[in-house]
C-alpha cells in the first residue's frame, strides 16, 4: 500500500522505495494544490559522502490531502503521471525533465519520487506573471519534442491511456455557472456565460479535433507547470493530464496563458511558425500556418479549465490573470462560435 499522508512517508518506506537503507527523512516543505509535493532530505544508514549516485533532496509528489475525497477523478491523474515517467519519458530524447527515482501507483494513489529542483538552483513559473517572447519560443521547442516523438499515436498504442482528461473537464463543467457567478469572479464575454452552451462546445470540440495533428499531449501547459534551469532554459513539469489529442491544445493553451494579451496579439503568428518549424526539423509532418489556424483557434478552449476551476483548486491570485488572457484570446479568435460552426464529425483522436 502506498502512503496517503505525509506521516506515512517514513524512513522505512523510503528505504524500500530507493533500494537503499535510509536512516532519516527530514521534511523541509510542502506545496498542496491539485496534487501535493512533499520536499524531504534523506540521510542514509552508511552516511557515505554523496557522489551523485543516489538522491539526498527529493520531491515526493502524489495525493496527500483530502482532495481525492472531494474530487474522486483526481486519483486518475496521479496514476497518469506515474505512467508517463515509467512508460513514455524514457523514449523522448531532448525533453527536459526532472530525474525520476521511482514511480508507482495503486487503486488509491499515484506517487512520483523525483529530484528537488529547487535545491539544484532551478526556478519555477507562476501564472500570475507574463513571460518574455524568447522564453515562450524556447518552451514551444520543448512541446515540439514531445509532439514529434509521439506524432500519429493512436489509443491502441497506449491501451492504459484512457480519456480521463475529457471526463475531468466535463466533471468540472457540471458546476460551471455556480463557479463563474461566485464572488470575486470576473465578467465574461457573452459566449462563455451559458453553461449548456459551453458544455456543448466542449463535447463537440472533443469529437471534432483534427486527426492530422494527433499526438501525445502534456495536457496542462500553463507556466505554473514549468521549471527554468540555472542556465535559463524552460521545461515542463506535472505530467498528470497527458492524453492523446490535437497538438494545438498544448500550443494554444501555453502561448495564451504565458503572454500578456498585447504580446500574444503581436507575436502569436511568429510563435506558431517557430513551433511548426521545430516539428518539421524533428521529422514530424510539415504544416503552414494557414493549415493549422482553425485548429489553433478551436484549441483555445483549453483555457476554459481556468474559468471553471473552483477556488479550492487554484488561488484567485493565479486564476484572475489567466482568465483575462484566455477570455481575450477566445474573444479575438471567436473560439466558441468557430467550434459551433464546424462540421460535427468524429475525429477518432
UniProtKB/TrEMBL annotation:
InterPro entries reported in the protein's UniProt record: CHK_kinase-like (IPR015897), EcKL (IPR004119), Kinase-like_dom_sf (IPR011009)
Positions of the CHK kinase-like domain: 112-284
Annotated protein name in UniProt: CHK kinase-like domain-containing protein
Pfam families: EcKL
SMART domains assigned to the protein according to its UniProt record, in alphabetical order: CHK
Amino acid at each position: 500500500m502506498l502512503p496517503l499522508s505525509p506521516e506515512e512517508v517514513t524512513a522505512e518506506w523510503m528505504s524500500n522505495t530507493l533500494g537503499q537503507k535510509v536512516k532519516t527523512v527530514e521534511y523541509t516543505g510542502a506545496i498542496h494544490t491539485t496534487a501535493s509535493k512533499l520536499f524531504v532530505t534523506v540521510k542514509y544508514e552508511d552516511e557515505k559522502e554523496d557522489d551523485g549516485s543516489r538522491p539526498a533532496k527529493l520531491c515526493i509528489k502524489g495525493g496527500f490531502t483530502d482532495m481525492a475525497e472531494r474530487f474522486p477523478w483526481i486519483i486518475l491523474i496521479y496514476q497518469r503521471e506515474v505512467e508517463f515517467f515509467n512508460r513514455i519519458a524514457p523514449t523522448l530524447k531532448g525533453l527536459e525533465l526532472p530525474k525520476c527515482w521511482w514511480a508507482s501507483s495503486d487503486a488509491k494513489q499515484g506517487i512520483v519520487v523525483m529530484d528537488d529542483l529547487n535545491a539544484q538552483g532551478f526556478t519555477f513559473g507562476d501564472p500570475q506573471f507574463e513571460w518574455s517572447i524568447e522564453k515562450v519560443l524556447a518552451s514551444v521547442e520543448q512541446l515540439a519534442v514531445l509532439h514529434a516523438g509521439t506524432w500519429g499515436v493512436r489509443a491502441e498504442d497506449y491501451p492504459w491511456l484512457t480519456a480521463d482528461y475529457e471526463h475531468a473537464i466535463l466533471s468540472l463543467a457540471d458546476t460551471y455557472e455556480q463557479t463563474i457567478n461566485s464572488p470575486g469572479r470576473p465578467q465574461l464575454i457573452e459566449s462563455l456565460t451559458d453553461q449548456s452552451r459551453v458544455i456543448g462546445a466542449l463535447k463537440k470540440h472533443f469529437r471534432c479535433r483534427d486527426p492530422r495533428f494527433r499526438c501525445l499531449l502534456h495536457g496542462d501547459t500553463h507556466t505554473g507547470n514549468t521549471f527554468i534551469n540555472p542556465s535559463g532554459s524552460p521545461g515542463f513539469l506535472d505530467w498528470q493530464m497527458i492524453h492523446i489529442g490535437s497538438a494545438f491544445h498544448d500550443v494554444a493553451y501555453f502561448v495564451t496563458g504565458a503572454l500578456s494579451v498585447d504580446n500574444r496579439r503581436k507575436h502569436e503568428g511568429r510563435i506558431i511558425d517557430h513551433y511548426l518549424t521545430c516539428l518539421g526539423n524533428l521529422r514530424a509532418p510539415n504544416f503552414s500556418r494557414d493549415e493549422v489556424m482553425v485548429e489553433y483557434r478551436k484549441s483555445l478552449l483549453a483555457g476554459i479549465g481556468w474559468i471553471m476551476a473552483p477556488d479550492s483548486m487554484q488561488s484567485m491570485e493565479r486564476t484572475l490573470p489567466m482568465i483575462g488572457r484566455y477570455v481575450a484570446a477566445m474573444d479575438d479568435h471567436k473560439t466558441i462560435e468557430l467550434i459551433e460552426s464546424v462540421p460535427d464529425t468524429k475525429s477518432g483522436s
